[in-house]
Each structure stands twice: as structure tokens, then as C-alpha cells.
Protein: endothelin-converting enzyme 1
Amino acid sequence: MYFHSCSTSSFSTPFVPFLSYPSASLISYFPSLQPRPFLFCARSLSCPHPSFLVSFFPLHLLPTLSSLILVCLLVSFLKHFLGRGLCLSEACVTVASQMVEAMDRGADPCSDFYQFACGGWMRKNPLPDGRSRWSTFNSIWEQNQALLKHLLENGTFNGSSEAERKTQSYYMSCLNTQRIEELGAQPLVDLIAKIGGWNMTGPWEKENFMEVLKAVSGPYRAQPFFSVGVNADPKNSNSNVIQLDQSGLFLPSRDYYLNRTANEKVLVAYLDYMVELGRLLGGERSSTQILMQQILDFETALANITVPQDQRRDEEKIYHKVTISELQVRPELQVLLTVLALMLVLRYLLNNYMMWTLVQKSVASLDQRFENAQDKLLESLYGTKKSCTPRWQTCIGNTDDTLGFALGALFVKATFDKHSKEIVKIQLVLDQLLRDKADAIYDMIGFPEFILDPKELDDVFDGYDVSDDSFFQNMLNFYNFSSRVMADQLRKTPNKDQWSMTPPTVNAYYMPTKNGIVFPAGILQAPFYAQDHPKALNFGGIGVVMGHELTHAFDDQGREYDKEGNLRPWWQNSSVEAFRQRTECMMDQYNHYTVNGEHVNGKQTLGENIADNGGLKAAYHAYRSWVQKNGEEKRLPAVNLTNDQLFFLGFAQVWCSVRTPESAHEGLVTDPHSPPRYRVIGTLANSPDFSRHFNCPAGTPMNTGRRCEVW
Structure:
């Protein structure tokens, strides 16, 4: 995956590189490009020979004619000498303006290339109100959302499929805050009663533990204790298998529960949030406080046995295949209970915890009081408040989560250029054994074809009922629908063409059990890709993205899967040892990077760091191959960089971002990617091509002399 997203707050329109600034702003950096009325002469007239004109024009027009000739000669001079080797198309002038605006010319590219590339962008982009972070990715996603809003709210909307019409109905039910406020907490109160009650808010059925667990985990898709899914068997990728994994924590990471000193503010806010939700659902404050504290203590105990993310990177070590019968306790097994009261206590505690997982999953579709209750928690976690988010944006996000491929059909038909499927091709330099796997990788670009076939699209969402006036019921219906679809997958062979991201998504990913890579339509736009942009920027943008995802096939996890997508030891021991030594270098490198005094986890981020480094190298070599075949491109005006330097600048400016300290901490403990600054600095510091083209002396921060290279 290229980018880790977590959106908790609202949007305002700040300066964004590549996207918003007109070409006129380039003038301050390149005055000679000032638009002038006479430019039409150079573009549309051939300046006639003077002797021809003298023969036919009256003498009193000769001064005017002389001026015209002078202007034509001047324009020709400017284009020939000043514009020699420069791309002066509208697209080139515009993108040059935006890149210059994003840069910090005062920074030394050999000391801090991130500051050099993004200093201007960061200065012009204070965090928008309600945002915990802001980046190019967020900006593109906001634009995609705005387009989808326009499509769904269009008074002449007429979807070509029933699925598209369901999409609009779902979106409108989310926007119908009047109806949501009228219903208040009652939909969830009724659901709790239907399942068997909650000790927190009223009577509960003490003997139905398994029924509650089945309901909460099955048709309502909460995940207490563990998660349940159906996926391709890693060791037999042609068959599906039930997969159980650790789950059950509400906070983003086990670290928030176990490192109490550093996260005291978050834990206090979380308990307050829990108590407030219990109270809104009918609980009495003092008893709710006690019961919620018990649930928090239980989650903390669960966190203590949860395996940390950086210890789950070896796919072989976490693969444990058993039969259902092996999971059963033998019915004839006798257990002696010497403390019956303890069993009763455990029963109500576990019931409370299970119902809490359902409550926290469901409150997003209730009235404003429940959203307000979350503000303090979000502020402690991310440094922002969700209530700042416009309702329509929340609803677009919910609709994408629920009916994303039907929504994607609308998006693709409105925006996607079929030529975008013909993007740059990237190859990795590999030994023959690895080359066989690389050659077997297949890519899926833009969108799955079925979304443009109304019948096929309707078949996908057949059985999902959407109500016009009950957002909560739509949510429950979807949980039930997705549960049935998941169960049905167990009886089928894995679909290698199945997508895990919707078309509007601004991201990309690699699928190890399918040995495939996916690039949704949402990322196939500037600054990653544009047909009229210099190839240096396209290779530095979408080219690096492609190289990144290709390299995932050979990172510390992807390398464990063969070309058929099966988990097995297919490398020679000597190759494994050489790989281990190279990855040790990279882990050590990233371990030394810090954000606000907190270290990056080089082991947790290893796979993404390998992909970043390998992707950049592959994309740059692909760009040089293109140049050798097609010749050098014209340079961008005003940027004052060679095209090779432009490649690296384009790569870096994709990662321009700002975020709150709280959000930065959350990223360090949860995100498998390094912080944006180090995705630039760490990768370029390992690139001899970068150091050569920017003439970085040995011993400078961007050319330390110690490089880590895996691929």
C-alpha cells in the first residue's frame, strides 16, 4: 500500500502543489514570460519580408510596418534564445509555477531535501481547521469527494444501474440529519434489546453468551476478542479459508493501553467517551463509570496479549492452520468450578464488552450528540475534532465504504480517461529466479471492468436493501449483506480480479496471494500522472508508485510468496541470509530518524521502506531508459533544474505534508509507512543517482557515505 489514510476531520482549501495555482504566478520567478498582446505574432503570423511590403504598402504605413517587423524579430529572438530547450506549453508553465511555489530555494538540497522540495508548501499550508494532517493525497481525495457530491446531488441524477440508484439513496439517507435527529438513540436501543440487552443500560439475558457473540460478530460485523474473515489460503492461494486474527481494541494501537504514562490524556478521554455513550443510551452515570472502567481494564488485558505489529512481519510464523474440530473443547471434558461467583462476574463483563464493541461500531449513524461525545477523544488522539467535518464529506466517505464500486462507476464515467490505463511501465533488475515472479505479476489499472456493466454491477449488490429515510437501518442492512457475501466466498475459489480498493481511492496496493498490483483511478491524476506533464514528473510520480508496489513482491513479507501467490520457502538459504543483512542496514537507518523526539520503528516500517527505495530506483532507471529511446525532454521554465533533478523533485513533492503532534505520534505507533519527511530523506539518501545529479558532497546529510540497498 502506498499511503496510510486516516481522516477524522474537515476540509478547507489551502495551497496545494500541482493543483491550484495559475500560470500567471510564474511571472514573479520568470518575468520574461509576462503575457503580452504581441505574442499572437510569433504563434500565428509569418513575419513578411520587408521588400515585399514596401512594394505594396503606402509610405505613411512604413513606421507601423517597421514596428511590426521589430516585434516579430523580438519574439523570435525570445523564443529562440530564452526559450531554447524550455517547454512553454500551458501545462508546463502551470506545473512549473506550482513546483516553484512549493519549494524553499533557501534550503540546501544536500542538507535537507524535504525542506528544499516542500518548505514553501508547508509555509503556505497551515493545517486547515479540523484537520489532523494535510497532504497532496488528502487534497486529491477532497477533489474526488467534491466531484462525487456533485454527481449524487445533481437534480437530474439518473443512474444507469439499480446499484447506482442505491448509492444515491444511501448518500441521501446519510445527509438526512433531520430524520437522524428525530430517531435519536432509539435505533441502537432497539438493536441492543433485540440481541438480549446490555447490563450497562438495563436488563440482560445472562445465559445467551454464544448467541450474543454470534450476533455481534456475524450479521453485525463487530469484532470482539478476534476478527473473522474469509480469504485466500496463503499456502494454497487457489482456495479460500476462514481466517481468525487478533482484534478487539478500540484505540489505534496496543501502545495506547500499555504505555499509560505517555498516553494518560488519551485513556482519560477514552473512558469519558465510553461513559458518555453509556449515559446517552440510558445508563446511570455512576454505575456506568464503574462498568466502563471494567471494560477498559479488560481491553488493556487484551492489549497485553496482542502481538505488536512489528512482530507480525514474518508471515510463516503467524500461519497456524487447524480444523474446526481441533478448536472445539471435547463435550465430555469435565471442569470443576470452585468459585461460581467468578464465572458470573466474567459472564457479565464479557457481555458488557461484546455489546460495547457493537455500540462503538454503530454510533456513527446516530444523532449529533453521539458525534459530539467523540470530540474530546479525537482531540486527544489526533489534535482535532471530527465535528468540524462537513456532513456531506462524512457521507461521501460512508457511501464509498459501503457501495464503493457503484460509486466508482459514477466517478469513472465522469472523469476517467481511458488513455490513463496506458501509464509508464516499470521493471525491477532481478536475478532469473526472482524475474520469473516479477514477470508473473499482473496489474489492474483504473477500475474493474464489471462496474461499467449495469447488470454485473447490480448482481454484486443484489440482496442489499437501501432505505430512503433510515441511515441506521441502511448500515445494519449492509453489515448483514456483507456477512452473507463473506460466508458465500468460502464455497468459491478466490477471485484474482477482485479489488480491495474502490476506484476513487487515492492509493495503490500489492496482493501477495494473487501476485498482482492495483492502481485505482483516484491516483491516476496530477501530481502522480498527467499526459501533458513532462515524463520526468510522470516517472517520478506514478512511476515510483508502480515501482513501490512491484517491490512489495520482494519485501520482507512479499518475498515469502512465490509467483503463484503461495507462502512457501522458495529462496536458497544464502539468498535469505544476504537479504537479512541488507534489511538490517535499512532497519538501523530508519530507527535513527525521529519525529518530535520519538523514534521511527525501523522494523515496523521495513516493508514500506524497502518498497520506497526499490520503487524510486526502478522508476529512475525506467525514466533513463525512456530518455535513451526518445531523447531528452525540454526543461520546465523557472524551476532551474535539469530533468533528472526534476524527477527527484517531483517524487519528493508528492510527500509534502503537515500534521499535528498527536497525529504524528499516532502514525509512529500504527502506520507501517515511515513519516513523509523520511520517505523522502531516507530514500534519497540511499540513492547514488540523486547525489550525483545534485552534486552532494560525501559527508553531507543527503550523502552520508553509508547507503542501504535491498534491491
